[in-house]
Amino acid sequence: MRLKVDGKEMEAREGALLLELVQVPTLCHHPHTETRGLCRLCLVEVDGRLSPACATEAREGMEVWSDTPGLRALRKTLLEWLLLTTDLSLAPELQALALALEAEPGRWGEVPGRKGREAIEDNPFFLRDYAKCVNCRRCVDACGDGIMGVYALTLTGRGLLAHPTTPLDRPLPETPCVFCGNCVQVCPTGALRPLTEV
Amino acid sequence: MRTTCPYCGVGCQLEPEVRAGRVVRVLAPDLPPNHGALCVKGRFGLDFPFSGKRLLYPMLRERKGAPLRRVSWEEALDFAAHRLHETLKAHGPEALAVFPSAKTTNEEVYLAQKLARVLLSTHNVDHCSRLCHSSSTAALSRALGGASMTNPLEDIWKTDLFLVVGSNTTETHPVIAAMIKKRVRQGARMIVVDPRYTGMAEAATLWLRVRPGTDLFLLNAMARVVVEEGLWNRAYVEERTEGFQAWAESLAPYTLERAEEVTGVPGERIREAARLYATTERAGAYWAMGVTQHTKGTATAQALVNLALATGKVGREGAGLNPLRGQNNVQGAGDMGALPDVLPGYAKVAEEEARRRFEAFWGVPLSPKPGLRMTEVFEAIPEVKAIYLIGEDPMTSEPFQDHTKAQLEALPFLIVQDILENETTPFADVVFPAASFLEKEGTFTNTDRRVQRVRRVLDPPGEARPDWWITRELGRRLAALSGRPWPLHEGPEAIWEEIRRALPGMMGGISYRRLEKEGVRWPCPSEDHPGEAVLFRERFNTPSGRARFFPVDYTPPAETPDEAYPLTLSTGRVLFHWHGGTLSRNSRLEAAYPELKVEVNPRDAARLGIADGERVFVVSRRGRIQARAWVTDRTPEGVVYAPFHFAEAPANRLTQDALDPISRIPEYKVSAVRLEKLD
């Protein structure tokens, strides 16, 4: 199948994700957890509309733009809001990206965020430090459909207040959690991290 | 640095991140077999090498009763070699036994069994799979001529029906369980045969709650339905098997009515299971200790083999017969010849041609008489006078612990080679401190025959040395005393090169260089061969090339409940621990599961007036242990379940040493017990 990416004709296999064809930043996307289309960092323009590259399949004759001034501005704003709400000190890749996009979070003033949340230590293996969580949901997907099928993590709240937690906010040992740490492995910001690292 | 997990047979690839001599984080690379996933043991349980119980220096005891004293390697090795050599001269090769470990590398197992055969002239070589899958090995070998998983783990993604028998996969092989459960979420179906409501039962399409020790009856009843309803695969049976008719006739007594009485599973559900298994083309059977650890373990595994053959499931993608191997290198330990009746590559000791080949290869004569199996060696003390024990803890893992203790006390000479002090160390005359998997190079072979690298990430502490080095040095001294050949390998790769030459058809194509990238499955005869995924596509490894049916009959467990001992005890593992607990209980895992909990059904608990969390005694004819009652309907009425990881409350004080007549595996899964309240 043929399509046009950033002005160039390209060949793609049936079912390929746009992410495989363009170089764009990603955050929530992870091959093992099947998380798709949540963080919007990988947005591209498809036939004039915004679509997440990690959740959009290539189609015959598609026209895709991955790096327009508008997209850059959008990514920059997204990162600024992440920086305002979240502690990204253990996410060097996001910091580097913010630097590259010349993000200035201060220009939005103060917004309510999760930075002040206290870390939860309720088991012998790892910490849940939601001040560092960007709501990418990889952990929820790794625990659920993506890998384990255990469903000890879930999402609660909406919009800016949305965040991962356990069912009914119980301590992890009181959930079906098997402490496989697959959620820890896929966490991109250090919100979940082994106690040995703390 | 990438290495292979030391816990179970899945063989997960992992990348431990070491800072200041400590493992701070464990990640998994996107490689087979685990593709980034791990379980709690691989992820958080790799700190046992830093335990205070590490054996750091060679030690020896001049005479029984004297304390162990620290000595130099030189002195410990000389002492051990002389004692072994004296025993050999005075009492002959049958008085010696060597137990390589399924926890050590292929290279180390190969060297240890070679030491036994070449320098001590004995086939008294065995390892812990005697206590886990020896029944499967016996059944598969005689029927198919091979004793490993027939299909690769990747086939899980192509399987439409899983028949899981006696495997608590979610806790014992968690990464495989996650794969199977994901496949079930994608639409595959799963039949689970288990007395307990395990994580697999929870995910099953059809859960058959058999009474403990009656799986064989159920499998034969399923087979009878298959034959009766004409669901067997005629073309397959005619072309690829022999003995079908006699087997089919042997199933006459296994009616659904009788099956319902014996197993407790409604006949209609057995029929449903039989139809589902027979009519799903890609149906794979998976099993573990629930099948094997019985006095009829071999027969039960055989029943499963028969059922798979009748329905044409072996040699097909997404199907097959898949015993889930427990130890990280239990497959490799068998491949390397750590078994009393076979040489490396499963060449039979009793077959002249095989023996000749190894006699020429090693340059020594070999006895045609198979050696003793591990359980038999312990029985043969004090005729067996010296044991070289590597990475095993029989005090915790053998059944009927008091008896094992008496036997070990009566043993004249014991070498314990291990990384950590365990329950058997106090019986040692010589202690060799070994290096852990993080501290050495080599290969492990996982449950689906994938040879994978183990890499040195840390330096061994104190004077600990890798097992291959210790065995090589002990061999060097024995060779000097006996005048037999013992080439001094420079390191693990040199030993692996000898293995490749010894087993060209099996391992010939697998070089360390090739393993840099990812593991390679045997058989792999040449460097350009990808390694075989599905076994027996064209022919079986039997002389005729056909698989053989073996009729098997149901017998009740050796001990059944009675008035004095009205409950059935089943033993096994829990997610957070590993076998004797030597590794897991010296790691962070201990904090998650620090004491023995015995599962008690709510009805039994109510009858006995036992509350959840209450302390109780579990009592059998052989002894008693203390445990905390966990009142849960995971276990059926009349059955209690206890893990065997806890040295201070060893479930194996309760189990009996009734053995399977063929595999000599003990019946760990069924003992009669009663519960007593503490006061």
Automatic annotation (TrEMBL), chain A:
Query: What Pfam families is this protein classified in?
Result: Fer2_4, Fer4_9
Identify the domain of life: Bacteria
* Matches recorded under InterPro entries: 2Fe-2S_ferredoxin-like_sf, 4Fe4S_Fe-S-bd, 4Fe4S_Fe_S_CS
Q: Give the GO molecular function terms.
A: 4 iron, 4 sulfur cluster binding; metal ion binding
Cite the Gene3D superfamilies for this sequence. Answer: 3.10.20.740, 3.30.70.20
Keyword terms? 4Fe-4S, Iron, Iron-sulfur, Metal-binding, Repeat
4Fe-4S ferredoxin-type domain mapped to chain residues: 124-153, 164-197
Give the protein's recorded name. Answer: 4Fe-4S ferredoxin-type domain-containing protein
Species, as recorded: Thermus oshimai JL-2
